[in-house]
Amino acid sequence: MTAEVVAPRPTSSVRDYLRLGKFDVYDYYLGILIVASAAPAEPVTLLLFLLGEVAVIVAGVAFDDVTGYRDGSDLVNYGPDDRLRKKLRKPLVAGTLTESQALRFAWGAAAIGAALWTAAVLTAPHRPMWSVVLLVVVFAAALQYSYGLKLSYRGFQEAFLVVLGMTLVLAPHGLITGEFSGFVLVQAVLFGMGPLMFGVYSNTNDVDGDRAVGRPTVAALTTERGNARFIGALSVGEFLLGALASVTGVAPWWFALLVLPATALRARQYHLGFAVGDIMRARKLGFTAHRTCVALLVLANVLVAIG
C-alpha cells in the first residue's frame, strides 16, 4: 500500500505578514508630517489617524495581492522571467502564506483601520463634514481597489493613487483646523503625485501581466510612446501646479523655487525610464523624489509659520 503524499503547508512567519502588508513602503504615511507642520499640534488625533491609515493601506495592499494571485498577474510580474522583482515580496506567489491567511489578515487590518479612524474623528477638535465624508469614501475605495468592486480593474487606478494621497493630507488637516486651505490642497496634490509617479513606472514594467488579466492601466491601454507621453505630461504638470500656485498667490511666491530639487529628480526619473530605458531604476528614483518633495513641503510650512 502506497503512503499518500501530502503537500507541505506554508510555514508563515511575522516576516511574511510584514511583506504582505508592504510595511517597508512607508511613503503614504509621510503625509502626516505635512499635516503636523501645517497645523497646530494635536498629537492624539494625529497618532490615531496615522495608525489608522497604516492599517487601511495594509489591508488594501493585502487584498491587492490576493487578487493578483488569483488572476495570475503576480505570477507573471514576479515570476522567474523577471529577475528584477523579488518573489518573496509576494508571499502568496512565494508560497509562504495561503490565500485564507492573507484574507484574514486583510479583513483584520481593515477592521482595525476603521476603529482607529473613528477614534481619530472622535478625538479631533473639529469634524467638518467634508473631512468625514472623504475618509469614509476613501476607506471604502481602499478595500475595493483590487478586491470586491476591483476599481483598479475598471480604469480608476491612477486616479485612486492621487486621491488617496490627497486624502491623507486634507482629511486630518480638516479635523485639526476645521478649515479648507488652498495651499494645503496644493501640497496634498503634490503629495498624492508621489505614489502615482512610482506607480506608473511599475505599471510600465508590469504591462504584459496587466494586459493578460484585463487590468486597464494607462500603460496597458496605450502604446509605449503614448505611455511615455502620459508620464511626461504628469511630470510637467507636477511642476506647473507649484508654479501656478506661486504665481496666483495660493502659495508663497518662493514656493515653486523651493520645490525645484524635487522637480530635478522627477526629470532625472523620466530620463532614466524613457531615454535610458531602465524602468525599474526610474521607479526606485521615484521614491527619492517623493521623499524629497515631502521634506520640502514640510520646510515650506515651517517657513510660512515663522513668517
From TrEMBL:
The keyword Methyltransferase does not apply. One of its GO terms (biological process) is menaquinone biosynthetic process. One of its GO terms (molecular function) is prenyltransferase activity. It is found in: Membrane. Keywords: Membrane, Menaquinone biosynthesis, Transferase, Transmembrane, Transmembrane helix. One of its GO terms (cellular component) is membrane. Coiled coil: none annotated. PANTHER family: 1,4-DIHYDROXY-2-NAPHTHOATE OCTAPRENYLTRANSFERASE (PTHR13929), UBIA PRENYLTRANSFERASE DOMAIN-CONTAINING PROTEIN 1 (PTHR13929:SF0). This is 1,4-dihydroxy-2-naphthoate prenyltransferase. It comes from Saccharopolyspora terrae.
